[in-house]
Amino acid sequence: MNYYVMTLFPEMIEQGMHTSITGRAIEKGLLSLKTINIRDYSVTGNGRIDDYPYGGGAGMVMQAEPVYRAYESLVCQAEQKALRLIYLTPQGRVFDQSMAQEFACEENLAFLCGHYEGVDERVLEAIVTDYVSIGDYVLTGGELPAMVMMDAISRMVPGVLSNSDSGVSESFSDGLLEYPQYSRPEIWRGCQVPPVLLSGHHGNVDRWRHEQSLLRTLRNRPDLLEHMQLDKADRKFLRKLLEAGADSGLSEKEVSVLQNILENS
Ligand code: 6GU
């Protein structure tokens, strides 16, 4: 996977990406990263790349020409005609795991990080293929969202994660949140590890973990559970939870979500 990032803050992207798992993957040649400083393509001679918005209003707008020239130099390097170029904006489609999987199939991916009040619409229309947001909140620029996306995409690239399984059996890949994990010591400050995990019975461990995943998803992300295909064992577990009612520690809201899910599945 080759990443190209157009930004006013290349050092921020370089620093972040050369850290931890993505850093190791770059060293191993599984990923490459090329940052393009948009300021290097200023057309005014004084390094400026922003100007006042036509029609007035607060803030500044990134000019079309520096962004387009940065893009031209990037296209030369990527040597790919139909290059996917992602513009990071809170107005984009909200990034999720299935988008990460889709982008991970590309050979090259380019990102445009905006700042100020935005980027001249004409250059966006000319070069952008995908508008992506990372959630419903506003950030000061596209650098962190680009890094969030590259991190999530990189771990889908074969070889990037050392344990080849760990990309598969995690939160969201099967539509459920991950179950809780425990390590030594067996008793920490009076808190026991759940006994089933010490039993050595793999079938029971797997079943317990799956049920914990269901429980966590119900608690934290009932919206995910509502859109899932539940099998017979799942429904049986959830029905037992519902029958236990208050005894299972469920809130009124969780009980009503559960009733809904069981009626509609
Ligand atoms: Cl992609 N950009 C900015 N500036 N803010 C955001 C975002 C992107 N996604 C969520 N908030």
Query: Can you tell me the residue ranges where pLDDT is under 50 for at least 5 consecutive residues?
Result: none
How many β-strand stretches? 9
Largest sheet: 5 strands, parallel
- Our estimate of the beta-strand percent is 15-25%
Write up what this structure looks like.
The protein has 265 residues and is of the alpha/beta class. It contains ten helices and nine strands. The chain has helices at residues 10-17, 20-27, 64-78, 97-104, 121-127, 143-154, 202-220, 222-226, 232-244, 252-264; strands spanning 2-7, 32-37, 50-51, 61-62, 84-94, 108-113, 130-133, 187-188, 191-192. The strands form three sheets. The chain has a five-stranded parallel β-sheet with strand order 2-1-6-5-7, sandwiched between helices. Strand 8 and strand 9 form a beta hairpin. Helix 1 packs parallel to helix 6 (143-154) and helix 3 (64-78) runs parallel beside helix 5 (121-127). The longest helix is centred in the C-terminal third of the chain and has 19 residues, at 202-220. The radius of gyration is 24 Å and the shape is elongated. The two termini are 40 Å apart. The relative contact order is 0.11. 6-chloroguanine binds next to strand 5.
